[in-house]
Amino acid sequence: MLAISLQSVLALIAAATLASASPRLDQRSQDASTKSGPLGLNNVKCSDVTLRTSITTQNFDFVNVIDNYDSSDYVTSTFLAFTGRNEQWVAEHFPGTRSPVSSSFTLRGSYCEPIRGAKKGSSLLLATHGIGFNRSYWRYPYKGPEYSFVNHAASYGYSSFIYDRIGTGKSDIPTSGGFSRMQSPTEVGVLTNILEQARNSNVIGGKKHARIVGIGHSYGSGQTLAVTSARPELLDGVALTGLTPATEYVPDTIYSGAYTPMREIAGIENRNRPRIWIATGSRTSLVQNYIDPDNADAEAVNIARRGEEGVTLGIYTTLGNIASPAPAFNKPVLVLNGNHDLPFCGSNCERTVPPLPEGLRAIYPAASNFTSIIIPNTGHGIAVHRSGPDSHEILLDWVISNGL
Ligand SMILES: *[C@@H]1O[C@H](CO)[C@@H](O)[C@H](O)[C@H]1NC(C)=O
Ligand SMILES: *[C@@H]1O[C@H](CO)[C@@H](O)[C@H](O)[C@H]1NC(C)=O
C-alpha cells in the first residue's frame, strides 16, 4: 500500500473526489438478523475441494532483506522502516524490478451448493478471504448459520467456492521465501489460476462454471481487483468488501498490529507455523485492526483470535503494488465497507466527501454498475460483527439485482 504505488493511488482518489457527487449511502440496521432468501439458511451442502496450482509469476525483486527471517526484532525493524522511512526503505530494498518465479501449491477449499432450488444460470460466487483469516471467514463459525455467507448465498439458490489462501488453514504453508515467494503477485497468480480452473475444468463442483462473481475481503478484494485489471474476462462482476484506495492508514494498522512471529504468540491455535508467518501480537491488536468492539460479540472476536492466520513481510510490503486501474472491466462492481474500518479508512469511512470507498470508482471507469455501500457500526472484519448477517444479505441483494 505504501511503496511505489502510493502516488498513483492518491491521484486516483483525487480524480474520484472531483468526478462524483456525494451519494446517499444505504444505512442498514445494526442488529444481527436472521433474514435469508426463500430457501432458508440451512439449505447448504459443502464438499472439500483440492486444487493444484503450478504458476509462474513476475515477482518483485527485494535486495538486502533476510528472505527467511526468523526474529521478531527483524520483523519490527522492517515495519518501522517501511512505515516511518518509506522512501528510504523503498530505495534500499525495493528496486521495483521483477523476475519470474515458479511455484506449485496445493490449495484446499469448499464448494458449497444449495441442497435444493439451485438457481438456473446463476454465477458461481468465488470468495477470497483477507489477512488473518482462512476460508471460514465466509462460513463464520459463530452462532448459527446467520454469520455464514455461504448459507445466505444458498438460501437464494447460489453456489459458492471458498478456499484457504496459501499459508492459511489446510492449504500449503510455505516454510521459506517470506519476501521472494510469499508476496502479492504470487497470490494474484494463484487466484487467476483458480479462476481458469473453475471455468475450464470440472475440479470445482464437478462442472465448468461459465459465470463467476469474484468476492473479496480486504487483501482478497485487492487480489480480485488485480484480476479485473489484468484478466477482466475471468470475472462477471466483483464485490469488493473491506477495501478503499486509501493508503494513509496503513502505518496505523502496522503499528497497532504489533506483528509478531506466530511461534511467539500465546493463545492462538496456529503457533506451529513456519517462522516467516507473523500475526497480530495480541487480542487487542487484532481488535484494533479488525473490529469495532462496541458492535461485535466478544465470543465472535475470540473465535477470530484463536484461529488467527498469518501474513509475511513480503505480502505486507507489496500489497499496494497490485492495485492498478481496470479500464476494460465493464461489468458490475460493488464496494462494501464497514464505516469504522481502520486499515482503509482510519476508523471513519465517511470522513471525506464523497466517502473514501467511492474512490474505487475511478479504477472502474467502464463498470456497467458501480455501487458503494457503507455499513454502519462495523469495523474492517465485517463478517465478525453483529451486522455481519445483514452485510451478507446486502451483498446477495446486489448479486441478484444485477442479474449475476
Ligand atoms: C480457520 O479460522 C477459524 C476462525 O476464523 C478457526 O476457527 C479455524 O480453526 C481455522 N482453521 C484452520 C484449519 O486453521
Ligand atoms: C445497479 O445495482 C443496484 C444494486 O446495487 C441495483 O439496485 C440497480 O438496479 C442496478 N442497476 C442496473 C441498471 O442494473
Automatic annotation (TrEMBL):
One of its GO terms (molecular function) is hydrolase activity. The keyword Phosphoprotein does not apply. Keywords: Hydrolase, Signal. Residues 1-21 form the signal peptide. SUPFAM superfamilies: alpha/beta-Hydrolases. The keyword Signal applies. Residues 127-387 form the AB hydrolase-1 domain. This is Alpha/beta-hydrolase.
